[in-house]
């Protein structure tokens, strides 16, 4: 089993379904590292060293350990209700959101909504946004007037790794 596939499985557990390996995440999204390793081992091999490598080398910095490295959480992407202790941050003038072409009519009407997740996820660069959109079909990238949103009182959060979060993006801030 590749580290990439194990990483996807860990994302699924920490963001959406800790119960599938019989673990819990606390209200801040933290799971016990030993419990995670034990749980993952029911279906695929994972040792501490490999987990450390997956976390350290993840290109989007999807995971974080707590200070004493006994706990781990996903940095973004959750559908389970967790408080990630996010601090509001000043966004760049523009952010990007990659979606699939087929969602465009609905997005034009409603703006960007978090759908199954806690936040709308935005990218700092177009290349990443294209990759995010391509997960859903033929990619379509929106440029978001983040500066105007912030001026109007919308709050942004910056995750390690270049992902930005906000609660919604009304249609008037979507530039083409
Ligand atoms: C779309 C991955 C219709 C939205 C990525 C997206 C990201 C609407 C889909 C992170 C809509 C939800 C999240 C509306 C939004 N009508 N469709 N009003 N508003 N949508 O997977 O942003 O690689 O929940 O455009 O890189 O694709 O796993 O969100 O297409 O950072 O670490 O509804 O997950 O991170 O899809 O992806 P998702 P996303 P990882």
Labels describing this entry:
Arc Repressor Mutant, subunit A, ADP-ribosylation fold, binds ligand HQG, three-stranded antiparallel β-sheet, alpha+beta, Ptrans_KptA/Tpt1, elongated
What does this structure look like?
The chain is an alpha+beta fold and 176 residues long. The protein folds into two domains: 72 residues, Orthogonal Bundle (Arc Repressor Mutant, subunit A), CATH 1.10.10; 82 residues, ADP-ribosylation fold. The strands form three sheets. Strands 1-3-2 form a three-stranded antiparallel β-sheet. Strand 7 and strand 8 form a beta hairpin. The longest helix has 14 residues. The protein starts with a helix and ends with a strand. 28% of the residues are buried. The mean pLDDT is 96. Ligand HQG binds next to strand 4 and helix 4. It comes from Catenisphaera adipataccumulans. Keywords: NAD, Transferase. InterPro entries: Ptrans_KptA/Tpt1, RNA_2'-PTrans_C, RNA_2'-PTrans_KptA, RNA_2'-PTrans_N. Its EC number is 2.7.1.-.
For the record, what CATH class of the largest domain applies?
Alpha Beta
**CATH fold name of the largest domain:** ADP-ribosylation fold
Strand content: 15-25%
Our Rg estimate from Cα atoms comes to: 17 Å
| Parts with pLDDT < 50 across at least 5 consecutive residues | none
Based on secondary structure, the structural category is alpha+beta
CATH architecture verdict of the largest domain: Alpha-Beta Barrel
Domain unit count: 2
